[in-house]
């Protein structure tokens, strides 16, 4: 005779907090005349990340605008790079 199965206890539901991490697109950094990039993609990304955090700080650490901070920081960093390469 087969044993009766016992129902599995339901796992307690835990709230998942979704964290969105913005990442830089896989575009190559602009190249200078000899084919080498002026800044490595890692340097550019870290500079954008630093500037986005500064914007977050300046707003008093208020959450909810990470994407806007990243986009603004990326624009500022890229504009600064273009000034230096022009």
Sheet with the most strands, sense and barrel status: none
Question: What is the molecular shape?
Answer: elongated
What is the strand tally?
0
SS-based class: mainly alpha
Radius of gyration: 23 Å
**Per DSSP, what share of the residues sits in E-state strands of 2 or more residues?**
under 5%
Instruction: Give me the number of helical elements.
Output: 2
The average pLDDT value, as a whole number, equals: 77
Low-pLDDT residue intervals, each spanning 5 or more residues: 27-36
Q: State the end-to-end CA separation.
A: 85 Å
Considering DSSP H and I runs of 4 or more, what fraction of the residues is helical?
40-55%
Order of helices and strands: HH
Question: Describe it for me?
Answer:
The structure is a single chain. The chain is an all-alpha fold. The protein has a domain at 41-85. It is 44% helix and 0% strand. The chain has helices spanning 41-58, 66-85. α1 crosses α2 (66-85). The longest helix has 20 residues, at 66-85.
């Amino acid at each position: 005779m087969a044993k009766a199965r016992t129902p599995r206890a339901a796992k307690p539901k835990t709230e998942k907090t979704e964290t969105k991490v913005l990442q830089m697109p896989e575009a190559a950094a602009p190249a200078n005349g000899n084919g080498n990039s002026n800044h490595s993609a890692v340097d550019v990304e870290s500079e954008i990340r630093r500037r986005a955090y500064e914007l977050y700080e300046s707003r008093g650490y208020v959450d909810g605008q990470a994407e806007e901070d990243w986009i603004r920081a990326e624009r500022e960093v890229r504009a600064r790079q273009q000034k230096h390469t022009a």
